[in-house]
Each structure stands twice: as structure tokens, then as C-alpha cells.
Amino acid sequence: MKVTLLSKTESRIKLLIEDVDVGFVNALRRVLVSEIPVYAVDHIIVYENTSQLYDEILAHRLGLVPLSTPANVDKEVTLSIEKEGPGVVYTKDMISDDDSIKPIIPDIPITKLGNDQKIKINCIAKVGIAKDHAKYQCCLAFYKYFPVINIDKKCDLCGVCVEVCPKNILKIEKDSLKITDIKECTLCRTCEEQCDLQAISVSYDNRKFIFTVENYGNMSVRDLIEISTGIIEEKCDEFIDKIAGVAEPGQRR
């Protein structure tokens, strides 16, 4: 397997993964979106709530607040809210007993308090995975096959494919049709469909993938990749151990 970094920002990474099949990249995608352990509010303890929202609605809203998650940390954390109206209760009002685990976005409104209204709540946050509840999902992961575009010599440079390409990756230069950035091709085949001479064809390499991960801020994209590959490795080791423990056909266990 060969992995090449195509681009990276604080919240997004794009990789070129080669010499693997679609089963591997799909397994990586599934682990990233459903099995990365992160923090979220699991339940709340309400001491006082005279706001317009029922306790159950507050619990639901607080459970969906994304929380920062240090890698390899698994403990129970309490975030306290105590505020009196008039005013708006924001996520920044959730005071954590662990500064490394707190709301990622401070200005998400939770509820509005009127005169003499007050809430006093303890939010108990625990580690979980999105396979059990969507509130634990911490990233978006997706992939596509690496595009392959072939241009035949019979191309008459009519320019139709250049005009219809939604990503503008085709251009006519020095009496020839050029591809400016093949990685941006979406495999829509519009150029192929619009060419009367059938001089351009679009396909893909089934052993080469462009893989993208976008985090929600819970943890860095680097930690997401490292944790997900570790989970896959553990699953493979577990599978091998179970296979090794299965008796041969006809052999009594």
C-alpha cells in the first residue's frame, strides 16, 4: 500500500491511497464515521429548570453539543451550567471539570431565559461511538476511485467537452486537449457523453483512491487517522485469533 498526502488543513485531509482494493478503503471509512470513541453528554442532572424548555428537550440539545476529545482518554466528565435570566444560555456556559474536554463551538445557543428564569444543571459526558448513537460521530469520511481520462487522436478540438465539464479541468492548449487537474474529475462522464466523435473516455483505476476526511473539531485529523487504523488492526488480529481457534472440518473441538 502506498499513501500520498494531497492536501491538509486543520479540519480536512485528502490522501491518495494506492495498491489496495475498495474493501479496505470502505472499511477505513466505516471505522472513521462510526467507531472513533469521542465524548458527548450522556445524561443530565437537573437541579433547577424554570426555562421554556422541558428537561427532556434540554437533555437532547446538550447531548448533541460536540465536545473536544483528547486521544486515548476515557473517563467521566461533568460540565456544569448555572445561569439566571434574562439572557441566552450558550455552550460557553458549560463549565467543565476537565479543561481538555469542553464544547468545541462556544456560541451555540441552548435556550433563552426570561426574567426570573434559571437553570442549574450538571451534564455528565462519557466516551462513546457513533455506531451506538449519532451524537458521537466526529467526522465525515468519503472516497472516490482515481479518474482515468483517455483522449483519442481523432479529437477535432471542437471544445464541447471543455464547455460542459462541471469542474473545468479540460482546456485546449497548443492544438491539443489538456487535462489540468485530473484529481478534480468527478467521473460524471459528461464530456464523454457530449463528444460525437467518441474521442474522449472516462474510467477509473480500481486500485487507486482519493480519500478525504473532514473532522468536526472533536480531535485532529491526524489522531482520527491513527486511531482508525489502530482499530482496523485490532479487528484483524481478533479475526485471526478466532480463525485459529476454529477446529478443522471433521475435527472434534
What descriptors fit this protein?
Gyrase A, domain 2; RNA Polymerase Alpha Subunit, Chain A, domain 2; 4-stranded antiparallel beta sheet
Structural description of this entry:
The protein is α+β, with helices and mostly antiparallel strands. The protein folds into two domains: 2-35 and 140-212, Gyrase A, domain 2; 38-135, DNA-directed RNA polymerase, insert domain (RNA Polymerase Alpha Subunit, Chain A, domain 2), CATH 2.170.120.12. The chain has helices spanning 22-34, 55-63, 160-164, 190-194, 221-244; strands spanning 2-8, 12-18, 38-49, 77-84, 87-90, 95-96, 109-113, 118-128, 139-151, 170-172, 177-179, 200-215. The strands form four sheets. The protein has a four-stranded antiparallel sheet with strand order 1-2-12-9. It is elongated and about 80 Å long. The mean pLDDT is 93.
Short description:
The chain has 2 domains: 2-35 and 140-212, RNA polymerase, RBP11-like subunit (Gyrase A, domain 2); 38-135, RNA Polymerase Alpha Subunit, Chain A, domain 2, CATH 2.170.120.12.
